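A quick aside before the break. I want you to see a complete sequence-to-structure record at least once, exactly as it would be stored in a machine-readable document. Don't worry about memorizing anything.
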Amino acid sequence: MKTISAVLLASILISAVSAYYLPTLDESSFTSKLSASSRPSLVFFGASWCGHCKNFKPKYTAAAEKLTGLVDLYYVECTTNMNLCGRMGLQGYPTVKVFPAHSSSPQTDYQGQREVGAVIDYALTLIHRRVVSLTAAKVDAFLQSEKAMVAVTEKATPPLLLHILAEEHKDVVIAHVKAGSPAAKELEKQTGVVLDGDSKTVLLGGRGKLVPHQGGMKKNELVAAIKGL
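That is the input. The structure line, written in tokens, reads:
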């Protein structure tokens, strides 16, 4: 009994998490939700009997969790919303359609791989990217910002968390630079901070003075640091 209860509890928790990060739309909520959203949306049209849908849905839900605050992701169960799915002109399942902000009319279909990373990468192409990709020529102007934050990482592209922070803190100029690049060297020269290319380094400040972030790299820890600017 204990084993069965544990399994049931785990199942309930998984369902709750899925519902939180991946809201379900139906005939009554579809138009109002999408029309009210100030962000672009991805809507997954699936069917409970569809094997490909069952395989894809957990990955889609994981992408939805990571994209919270940037792009809205939803699910529509077509076995109980046949009229709605019929209006979408679906050719099969699963189908993911792209909707612009404040619109319930699809713009295009998602044609990428059914993987977490692929969905995230595609979703990021739909938004206005507020993260500044620093070049050596931009460093001086960046340092004069009233409130500034820059993340130095080994990768050439900014981490997803940086996009989320930039979206939530529009009064702060948030930038990214690749470790070892000419921009990183110029940043090091102007701030006097030795940048370690083997790990993430975050500098915060403004008006010509940036100092290393001494706390952790989780979202809540970085948010606390930003609020202290």
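Two observations worth writing down. The CA atoms of residues 69 and 215 lie 23 Å apart. The two ends are 54 Å apart (CA to CA). We'll return to this after the break.
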